[in-house]
């Protein structure tokens, strides 16, 4: 586990003042071994469980979006009103379970070669990331 100095410096690199609330957000996001997928509301609930000290949704939203803008988080849009954030910023694919609202990483081993047969004139492909939506059988 990392000490507070690591998180304070990470926040300063974003141009954010390292308040207690922001350091707590940073720890929850980046003091872990596994990839972490979350919505802003899920993160708010997780932080609420870990501490009695309140963090406003505005602080949470602004901090998460500052991390995204700096390249520390990736945003995965599920639909027009739902986004998840991912601490794994590498190019990779996901399953999204619509029944449980769970986002699951896929690796290159989970796919055969993917070929695109169309390109856009004057555009260069930056990345290819597939979102496979599934639902539980009922």
Report on this model:
The structure is a single chain. The chain is of the alpha+beta class. The chain has 4 helices and 6 strands, in the order ααβααβββββ. The strands form 2 sheets. Strands 1-3-2 form a 3-stranded antiparallel sheet.
Helix and strand layout, with pairings?
Blueprint: H1 4-13, H2 20-30, E1 37-38, H3 40-50, H4 57-70, E2 74-79, E3 82-86, E4 93-97, E5 102-106, E6 131-134
Parallel strand pairs: 4-6
Antiparallel strand pairs: 1-3, 2-3, 4-5
Helix pairs in contact: 1-2, 3-4
* Overall domain count: 2
Spans of at least 5 consecutive residues whose pLDDT stays below 50 are none
Shape annotation:
globular
**The CATH C-level class name of the largest domain:** Mainly Alpha
Please give the largest β-sheet.
3 strands, antiparallel
CATH H-level name of the largest domain... which superfamily?
A: Winged helix-like DNA-binding domain superfamily/Winged helix DNA-binding domain
Helix/strand-derived category reads alpha+beta
Radius of gyration, in Å, reads 17 Å
Q: What letter string, H or E per element, gives the SSE order?
A: HHEHHEEEEE
| Share of β-strand residues | 15-25%
At a glance:
With 138 residues, the chain is an alpha+beta fold. The protein has 4 helices and 6 strands.
Summary keywords:
single chain; 138 residues; Arc Repressor Mutant, subunit A; 2 domains; 3-stranded antiparallel beta sheet; 3-stranded mixed beta sheet; 33% helix
């Amino acid at each position: 586990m990392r000490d507070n100095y690591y998180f304070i410096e990470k926040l300063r690199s974003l141009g954010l003042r390292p308040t207690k609330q922001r350091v707590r957000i940073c720890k929850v996001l980046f003091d872990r071994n596994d990839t972490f997928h979350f919505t802003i509301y899920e993160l708010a609930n997780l932080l609420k469980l870990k501490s009695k000290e309140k963090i406003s949704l505005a602080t949470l939203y602004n901090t998460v979006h500052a991390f995204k803008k700096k390249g520390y988080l990736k945003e995965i849009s599920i639909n027009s009103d739902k986004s998840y954030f991912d601490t794994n910023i590498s190019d990779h694919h996901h399953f999204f379970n619509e029944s449980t609202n769970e986002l699951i990483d896929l690796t290159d081993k989970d796919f055969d070669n993917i070929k695109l047969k169309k390109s856009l004139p004057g555009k260069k492909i930056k990345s290819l990331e597939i979102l496979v939506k599934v639902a539980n059988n009922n």
